[in-house]
Each structure stands twice: as structure tokens, then as C-alpha cells.
């Protein structure tokens, strides 16, 4: 397994026979180095989207077309993409799909979702979500954009993820302290990777509070395009 941060909330996850691009916002992302897009998308098999906001989904159509790979996301958003002529896999919360051996289950998140990057009024894009991604003896909980939720209790018990990819930048999502609280209360992570931070000045610029709140947990501050081996 290999996890590579693409800046902000974007990740490249190589697991089983899948290469998953999760929320791959590359163009316009201040954290992503211009000119290295091909490196990020090489060999991709699927795109996973947590919700429709531009800092997660704005590049999904172009990457899907260029790479010839389907987009997996909540049903309503998949219908919008299907209407644009690309292959979309729509599913819902509690649903599990097999992506080249990786088992991906959509779970709840608490945020909002709209297509807000095409001009005019935002378009309804269904509901926000997170993912449990299982394979190679690991389960990754990728939160998507969320705050702390009571749902995390049953999710932690049922899926028992050992790796957490947690939004933790604050302002739009839970912050580092809240993410640490959620991780400690509801999960037994061995590895935690923060995201949705550093991108803009109003977001957290480091993970110090997350590390302080999770003694004994391997908290990795990712570097863009530097692979992590859990």
C-alpha cells in the first residue's frame, strides 16, 4: 500500500490492484506543484469524490477524460457527471463497491455539498460523505470534510480502521484539536494523516495540536507527492 498526498484533501492511494485518486484538485491548488500533474495521475484506475465543492471535485471531469477512468461518488453527483459523458459509479452511504480488489464503503460526513465552481448559483450535488477503504490487511478511514459526529462511534466499532486520513484545518471542518479528540474517543488508529490544511492562511498551518492530542499514535505530516508506506 502507498498513500501520496496531492495537497489540500487530495490523495493518491495505491491499494490491492487499484490506484485511487481521492478528491484530486490539482489545477489551482496552491499546494500542488504545477507541471507534475501526470506524475499524480499516472496509472490511475478510479477517482473517488467525497463531495462536489471545487476544492475537491473541480478537476474530476478533466482527469476522468484524460485518464479514461470512472468517477465513484454519491448518486446525485454521479448523475451530473454522467450527463457530461463520463463513466460514473453512483452509490450511497452504507454501500460498498469493489474497485480492483479494494473494498470502498461510503459513510456519513457532516458538511455540505454543491458544485460551486462552474459560475452562477451553486448546483445541488447530493450529500457529503467519507470513505472506508479496505485492502491489504488495512482499513483507511478517509473522513472527507466533516466535524466530529456521533456516527464516528459505530463507524469505529464496525470498521475498526487502523489508518485515519482526517480533515483537520479548521474553519470549514474540524480543527486539529477536534480531530485529535475524535481519533482518541472513537478510533484506535495506528497511523493518522491530516489534510485540508496549509492550503490557505485561514487554515491550520501545522499539525502540532493533532500530535499533542494523540500520544502513541504515528501522526504523519504529509509532503506533497512524497509516498507514505503505512
Question: Roughly what fraction of the amino acids lie in strands?
Answer: 25-35%
Number of strands: 15
Structural class, judged by helices and strands?
alpha/beta
Topology-level CATH name? Metallo-beta-lactamase, Chain A
Which strand order does the major sheet show? 7-8-11-12-13-14-15
Radius of gyration, whole Å: 16 Å
CATH architecture: 4-Layer Sandwich
Task: Characterise this structure.
- The chain has helices at residues 37-41, 54-57, 60-67, 75-83, 151-159, 176-186, 208-213, and strands at 2-5, 11-15, 18-22, 46-48, 71-74, 88-91, 96-99, 102-108, 114-115, 123-124, 129-135, 138-142, 163-167, 191-195, 218-219.
- With 230 residues, the protein is α/β, with parallel strands linked by helices.
- The protein has a single domain, classed as Ribonuclease Z/Hydroxyacylglutathione hydrolase-like (Metallo-beta-lactamase, Chain A).
List keywords for this structure.
single chain, 230 residues, alpha/beta, Metallo-beta-lactamase, Chain A, 7-stranded mixed sheet, 6-stranded mixed sheet, 7 helices, 15 strands, 23% helix, 28% strand
Amino acid at each position: 500500500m502507498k498513500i501520496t498526498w496531492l495537497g489540500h484533501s487530495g490523495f493518491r492511494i495505491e491499494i490491492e490492484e487499484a490506484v485511487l485518486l481521492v478528491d484530486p484538485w490539482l489545477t489551482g491548488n496552491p499546494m500542488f506543484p504545477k507541471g507534475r500533474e501526470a506524475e499524480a495521475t499516472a496509472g490511475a484506475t478510479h477517482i473517488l469524490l467525497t463531495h462536489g465543492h471545487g476544492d475537491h471535485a473541480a478537476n474530476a471531469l478533466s482527469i476522468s477524460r484524460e485518464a479514461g477512468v470512472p468517477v465513484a461518488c454519491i448518486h446525485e453527483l454521479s448523475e451530473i457527471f454522467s450527463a457530461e459523458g463520463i463513466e460514473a459509479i453512483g452509490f450511497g452511504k452504507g454501500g460498498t463497491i469493489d474497485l480492483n480488489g479494494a473494498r470502498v464503503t461510503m459513510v456519513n460526513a457532516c458538511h455540505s455539498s454543491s458544485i460551486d465552481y462552474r459560475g452562477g448559483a451553486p448546483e445541488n450535488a447530493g450529500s457529503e460523505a467519507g470513505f472506508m477503504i479496505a485492502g491489504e490487511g488495512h482499513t483507511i478511514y478517509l473522513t472527507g470534510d466533516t466535524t466530529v459526529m456521533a456516527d464516528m462511534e459505530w463507524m469505529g466499532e464496525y470498521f475498526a480502521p487502523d489508518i485515519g486520513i482526517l480533515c483537520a484545518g479548521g474553519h470549514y471542518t474540524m480543527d486539529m484539536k477536534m480531530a485529535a479528540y475524535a481519533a482518541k474517543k472513537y478510533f484506535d488508529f495506528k497511523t493518522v494523516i491530516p489534510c485540508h490544511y496549509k492550503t490557505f492562511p485561514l487554515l491550520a498551518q501545522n499539525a502540532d495540536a493533532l500530535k499533542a492530542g494523540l500520544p502513541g499514535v504515528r501522526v504523519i505530516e504529509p509532503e506533497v507527492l512524497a509516498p507514505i508506506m503505512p
